[in-house]
Write a structure and sequence with these properties.
The complex is a heterodimer. Chain A is built from seven helices and 18 strands. By secondary structure, chain A is of the alpha/beta class. Chain A is elongated, with a radius of gyration of 23 Å. In chain B, the strands form two sheets. Chain B has a nine-stranded mixed beta sheet with strand order 9-8-7-10-6-1-4-5-11, with helices on both faces. In chain B, strands 2-3 form a two-stranded antiparallel ribbon. The chains are: A alpha/beta, B alpha/beta.
């Protein structure tokens, strides 16, 4: 049996969770039963997309104290369910919640876990997970040697199938057991929306990135104009942050954010690996730089060699 | 206050990575190593906490790896950490569980008030070691944190998630796994710092790997599919070619 932890946001199921359920249904070597596990403050909503999934069963643990994330209490629930049901595999989305939670469950149950996996299968009796490593420059096949094995996933290959409403009603099993009070000692007191100026970088469809080449705060202005014209968010390299041109929240790269816009325009950015790791999931990357030998020209789709201060306003002008 | 920061010494460049013949790890030749970048931010944060509180605090840096991993500890000491502990091993294939076991036993008897980890390593990205160490030490742990503030016997922080920032207040001692630039951008070690680090001590403890739960079978290189086509020789033709490409790809719409 495969147990899928289903993450919700404001009582709505995450698309990534639906993808994972779908993915789990296509793992014939790993048991033909796929059950879901939901934890939350509220009952499962009537609008819930769950009726479109092919889950065999859903276990639901409702607890009014779960108005905010209580890491140890969540981990206690999952550990108990895993102990009772003995699944071969436990899957969760590779999100801030999934990664935190499964690492706690893995510690408690003393079992193995792999984070951020793109695939899992059985080969010669071994459970093999595939995951990007070194920021996505290598792909690793790794053996997970424990039962159960815990995985957080971002299944890439699996496009969500068009959901059909299932004929059979999914059986919802309410879980009812009490948790020791000390597991609630660690609990978020509140949830604050992150305050990002302008368009949110991590969700933006278009991003203009700035680096050393913009030279000054003055230089930022023409790039801001380009961004405004495109409806793009502004991000940049560590150099741009160090110089105070952009806030730390807008840093793209290994110590900053990972972005996945359709379009990324990198201006005056040389293309150091630690920056490129943060933007490699962008659809199209355009680079503008006056140094024809800058490494970014081998890591972009299209490049323009030349002076930013001439080219960027010209593009903005054309866009108008 | 006693602060521990656990750091990882990892291969730096991703573009030059070549696989070893057995494909179980990367070939070490010609590769630069560095302190995992998010860990540098954790070290920086520890130093800022110490600076804000006065010089009484002690920052101890822990790392697990071959003898070269002492370079990471030296870098942290040049930034301002006080001393280091290197858990030395020549064995490879340490998974998060084995690493956490060794780190926890080294940390256990030393009574730290605050233990910091980078939330993710730039090589394996398993995001587990800090959480697993906290479990073994029976300490509370908040992962992916920013805005860490230290009070007399507690700390407050924000945990970054896709849904927003979760606010925590935690009693010390506690473990935190930290984000990068939004927590603290690391300083470059000063010449004085580098000279001073030479006088600071690194204790070495030999460690043996337990039984890993997660093991590399085979690595594969992902090829860069971006072609880097240069659009025209002069400004005018380059920009008009760019417009054409953007329009073809439907990237000029809303």
């Amino acid at each position: 049996m495969i147990l899928v932890f289903i993450e919700t946001k404001e009582a709505k199921i995450l698309d990534l969770s639906l993808k994972i359920i779908n993915y789990a249904k296509h793992l014939p070597d790993l048991g033909d039963e796929v059950s879901g596990l939901m934890i939350g403050e509220k009952p499962i909503s009537r609008e819930s997309k769950l009726k479109y999934t092919k889950l065999d069963k859903i276990f639901h643990f409702q607890e009014e104290k779960f108005d905010h994330y209580a890491p140890e209490a969540y981990a206690a629930v999952i550990s108990k369910v895993v102990n009772d049901l003995s699944p071969q595999l436990v899957l969760a989305p590779a999100t801030a919640l999934g990664n935190d939670l499964l690492a706690r469950v893995a510690s408690k149950l003393e079992v193995g876990m792999a984070s951020e996996c793109s695939a899992v299968n059985k080969r010669e009796g071994k459970l093999i997970v595939t995951k990007p490593i070194f920021g996505g420059s290598l792909l690793a096949d790794m053996e997970l040697r424990t039962t159960p094995a815990l995985l957080t996933m971002k299944p890439l290959e699996m496009e969500p199938e068009p959901f059909e409403k299932q004929k059979n009603r999914i059986e919802i099993k309410k879980l009812n057991f009490s948790l020791p009070p000390d597991v609630f000692k660690l609990k978020a007191r509140d949830l604050e929306q992150s305050v990002e100026e302008g368009i949110s970088l991590s969700k933006a469809k278009k991003v203009v990135g700035v680096g050393r080449g913009i030279k000054s705060e003055e230089g930022l202005k023409i790039h801001q104009k380009l961004a405004d014209c495109l409806g793009a968010a502004i991000g940049g390299t560590r150099v741009a942050v160090d110089n105070g041109w952009i806030p730390p929240d807008n840093q793209i790269g290994q110590t900053g954010k990972n972005i996945n816009p359709d379009l990324y325009i990198a201006c005056g950015i040389s293309g150091a690996t630690q920056h490129m790791l943060g933007c490699q999931e962008a659809g199209t990357i355009i680079a503008i730089n006056n140094d024809p030998h800058a490494p970014i020209f081998s890591r972009c789709d299209y490049g323009i060699v030349g002076d930013l201060f001439e080219i960027v306003p010209e593009i903005t002008e054309k866009l108008k | 206050m006693k602060i521990a920061v656990c750091i990882k010494w990892i291969p730096d460049t991703a573009e030059k990575l070549e696989l070893r013949e057995d494909k179980k790890w990367i070939a070490a030749a010609g590769i630069d190593f560095t302190m995992n970048r998010v860990d540098q931010c954790a070290v920086e944060k520890a130093i800022r906490i110490k600076e804000a509180r006065g010089d009484e605090d002690e920052i101890v840096v822990f790392s697990l790896g071959p003898s070269e991993a002492s370079e990471g500890i030296k870098m942290a000491m040049a930034m301002g950490a006080d001393c280091g502990v290197l858990l030395t091993t020549d064995e490879e294939g340490w998974d998060a569980n084995c690493t956490a076991e060794a780190l926890a036993s080294a940390l256990e008897s030393r009574d730290f008030d605050l233990i910091l980890f980078g939330h993710e390593s730039g090589d394996m990205s398993n995001c587990q070691t800090g959480l697993r160490v906290a479990h073994r030490l029976n300490l509370p742990c908040v992962s992916r944190i920013r805005d860490l503030e230290i009070f007399e016997e507690s700390a407050s922080c924000k945990r970054e998630t896709e849904a927003g920032l979760e606010i925590y207040k935690v009693k010390l001692p506690a473990v935190f796994t930290t984000l990068g630039a939004v927590l603290a951008t690391p300083r470059y070690p000063s010449l004085r710092g580098i000279m001073g680090a030479k006088k600071k001590e690194i204790e070495e403890i030999k460690v043996n790997k337990g039984t890993p739960q997660l093991e590399i079978i085979e690595l594969e290189k992902i090829t860069n599919e971006r072609k880097g086509e240069i659009l025209g020789d002069d400004k005018k033709s380059a920009v008009s070619n760019l417009m054409k490409k953007l329009s073809e790809k439907g990237l000029l719409k809303g």
